UniProtKB/TrEMBL annotation:
<dbReference type="GO" id="GO:0043153">
    <property type="term" value="P:entrainment of circadian clock by photoperiod"/>
</dbReference>
<dbReference type="GO" id="GO:0032922">
    <property type="term" value="P:circadian regulation of gene expression"/>
</dbReference>
<dbReference type="InterPro" id="IPR005101">
    <property type="entry name" value="Cryptochr/Photolyase_FAD-bd"/>
</dbReference>
<keyword id="KW-0456">Lyase</keyword>
<feature type="binding site">
    <location>
        <begin position="167"/>
        <end position="169"/>
    </location>
    <ligand>
        <name>FAD</name>
    </ligand>
</feature>
<dbReference type="InterPro" id="IPR002081">
    <property type="entry name" value="Cryptochrome/DNA_photolyase_1"/>
</dbReference>
<dbReference type="Pfam" id="PF03441">
    <property type="entry name" value="FAD_binding_7"/>
</dbReference>
<keyword id="KW-0274">FAD</keyword>
<dbReference type="InterPro" id="IPR036134">
    <property type="entry name" value="Crypto/Photolyase_FAD-like_sf"/>
</dbReference>
<feature type="binding site">
    <location>
        <begin position="73"/>
        <end position="80"/>
    </location>
    <ligand>
        <name>FAD</name>
    </ligand>
</feature>
<keyword id="KW-0285">Flavoprotein</keyword>
<dbReference type="GO" id="GO:0005737">
    <property type="term" value="C:cytoplasm"/>
</dbReference>
<feature type="domain" description="Cryptochrome/DNA photolyase FAD-binding">
    <location>
        <begin position="70"/>
        <end position="196"/>
    </location>
</feature>
<feature type="binding site">
    <location>
        <position position="70"/>
    </location>
    <ligand>
        <name>FAD</name>
    </ligand>
</feature>
<dbReference type="GO" id="GO:0003904">
    <property type="term" value="F:deoxyribodipyrimidine photo-lyase activity"/>
</dbReference>
<dbReference type="GO" id="GO:0003677">
    <property type="term" value="F:DNA binding"/>
</dbReference>
<protein>
    <submittedName>
        <fullName>Deoxyribodipyrimidine photolyase</fullName>
    </submittedName>
</protein>
Amino acid sequence: MSEPKFTTDYNLILEKVAEINPVEYAKTRNFIDGAVSHLSPYISRGVISLKQVKQEASNKGLEPYQIEKFLQELAWREYYQRIWQVRGDAIWNDLRQPQPDVLHNKMVKAVVEARTNITAIDAGINKLYESGYMHNHVRMYVASIVCNIGKAYWLQPSKWLYYNLLDGDVASNNASWQWVAAAFSDKKYYFNQENLNKYTGSDQRNTFMDKSYEDVATMEIPDVLLETIDLKLETILPETEKPTIDTSKPTIIYNSYNLDPQWRKDEDANRILLLEPSHFSKYPVSERVIQFVIDLSKNIPGIQVFVGEISELVTFYDGSELNIEKAIISKNHVAFKHYPGIKDDYEWMFPEVTGEYSSFFKYWKRCKAYL
C-alpha cells in the first residue's frame, strides 16, 4: 500500500471528510490497507472537529448500527481528551496501575532504527518517518513489541511516536501506549506473527513473533530488542519576526491543536499562529510536524506565525484601551490553560458527557444516549 498523502488544502480536507465510508471502515479498519479515513491529522490539529466528522457520518442516510463502529472509534479520542482534562499533567503517569514487568526506562534501539527484522513492523516504522503516519493497528503492534516483549517503560517510547506523528495527540498517544502495556488496562496486549500477517498482508515466518500467544507472552527478550537508547527529542522551530499587532483589535490565537479556518472567521481581529518554545520543550515534535502545522495555518487568511511565548504577545497591549481579558481569544485546551483572555469552548462530539469514566465502554454507553 502506498503512503497516505496528507494535503494541507482546506477544501481538499473537506472533500476527504465527505468521502468517509463508515460501513467499509467498520469491516476493514484493522487491516493496514483498510478503509480508514486518514482524517486523524486534521482532527488532532483542530482543522476539523470530531463533531463535524460525526455529523458528516450521520448525514449519509445509513442506519444507526451501520455508523456506530465508526462513531465509537471517534469517541475513543474524546474519551482520552476527557481523561487529560481531569488528570492534567498526571497523563504522564501510569493512569490505572504501575506497568508490570518493566526492565528499563529507555527506548528499544532496533525499533527506532526500523531493524526488528519483522518486515511489516520495520515497513510501518519507515513509513512513519517518511509520511508522519502510522496505522493504528501497527501502533499497537509496535507498542507491544517495545513494552511487552522488550520490557520498556511506556513513557519514552510514547514520546518517540508522538514526536513523529502528524496526528500526534498527547491524550490519545499516552493512554493508548498505557492500554497496550497494562498501565491503563487489565492485561497486556499481545499479538503473534500469524495475526500480523493477517492484517498487514505479510507472509513472513520464523520471526521472534512466530509463536503461539502463550509462548509470545512468556518468551525471553529477543536478542534484537536488547539494545536500548536514551532518546533526546528536540523541536527545531523557525525564526520569525515580531508580529504586527493592531492593539485596537483583539488577537485570535491559533496553535498546533487549533487550526480551524472557520473559527471566528468573520471577526475583525489579529490572527496569530503561536508556536511557544515552552510548549514544544514539554511536547517535542519533529520538523515535519512543525511544517505541517505551519502549512495548515495558511488556510487562515491574514495569519502571522510567531515563535515566542503568550506573555510576549500580552505586552503588545500595554497601554492599550483594550483590556487584556478581552484582547486575547483562544480555544479552551488543557495544554494551553495558561493563555489569558476569552476561551471558546472545545467542539465536543458529546458535550453532555463530561468527566472521567473507569472504562471506555461505560463512557460509550453514556454517549449512546445522545446519538
